[in-house]
Amino acid sequence: MDVREVITRGQDAITVARVFGPPIERDGVTIIPAAFVTGGGGGGESDDPGNAGSGGGFGMMAWPVGAYVVRDGSVSWQSAINLNFVIGLGVLAFISVLKTRRAMARAKTKRAALSLARRHWMRTSTS
What is residue 53's predicted lDDT score, i.e. its pLDDT? Predict the structure, then answer.
């Protein structure tokens, strides 16, 4: 498979059909699911006659963000909140704050120790 074919397949993979799912109809209510879709790819090829070749790759991620709900001619948006993701972000933020405070305390202690050592050295070197 050459690089151009990989890129073409990647472009075909990211379509509106991946962002908005097929409508689901039940009891007069239509639900249109929506997702955040992102992807990327790359490739390369060699023109060296002794070592000719090509290669490439493509990756894609998608996660639900909500759905449009059509009921009695009225459209509303229902957000899909991933509670585990929100909690995980909160934990990461908390850990980052703790590590930053720890690093700042260590730097302050180190500065104080260096200042004390300089003062002591200045006193002993001038005597």
Answer: 76
